[in-house]
Amino acid sequence: MPASNKNQLSANQLNRLKAIGGVLTIFGVSLFVFFVWSVGLNEVLSNIQKFGLLGFAVILIIYLCRIFLRGLAWKLSVYEPYRLGLRDTVPAVMIGEAMSAMIPLGILISGTSKAVAVRKKVPLVIGLSSVATENLFYSFTTSLFLTLGALTFVRNFPLDPGWTMTIDILIGVLLLLLIAGIVMVIKQWHFASEICELLYQRGFARGLLERGRADVRLFENFIYGFYRRHPKRFLPISLCEAGFHALGVVEVWFILGRLMENASPLNAFLLESVSRLITIIFKLIPFLIGVDEAGAEFVAETVAVGAGIGVTLAIIRKGRILFWTAVGLALILKRGLSPRGIFRSVTG
Fold first, then answer.
1. 190 vs 77, which has greater pLDDT?
2. Among candidates 126, 118, 56, 119, which has minimal Cα distance to 90?
């Protein structure tokens, strides 16, 4: 296939994703306005004032601790002869989170932006493979977290039969994916690269897979190499990822405690698990605007916390995201990078 056609194909795919991201962003803004209006702007502002600047400072510190744990997990995912320190990984995670949050296609470039941020310390392919390894552990613990949250939600609160069936199906899918992922790593199946090769031979996305299928194979080799050489790191990395989720529950519990009396750890756990699910599903929407409020209101009403508290919770956490996104942008500029440059390095 000529180079011009390959580039055009990439441009067409990129334009479609931009269009989808733009539509979802408009949808999210509309949802945000609707939920703030339905709850009442005065109630939301009153709750935010009650939470206060001191409360906001505390959740900023909690999230910094969460970023530290992701940075430590990534540090442990790099193996000899290469190495990264926390001074490398923690700022790079902030950069990745900023890129992920602020643009519709952030999900496509978050991992790459982390690798680009440490390109002076390790080769890009090493950075990408170590990010992929850390993401596997993150996906593993996230699946367990979501499964536990869904089971708790279904078994402890009355829901419509349709919602119950949907959540049960979600639990089944998550467990199957979790088991498949564990078996794939243990057996060291080159599942992803084989699929890429099959698609390439069948003529699908040949421009993208011309070089991409070899890169996927290389990533798999690095990941499986980590499994063979450092099995003792599995538990520490998993604990870091589990700590990331646990601190998310602590953050929600703290916010609820400042907004209402008798804040329940169970309610905090359910709100955080739903928030994590929304983050995964609606990553194309910048800052999860609108959809985070929708999910928080749904859970808050179900567990009798109140729609106003749920929407306020989502807005307060969105303020925390905005703050750390600004920090991430400052780090991008400090390292001589730019969001547009990182974006181009992914989209070609």
1. 77
2. 118
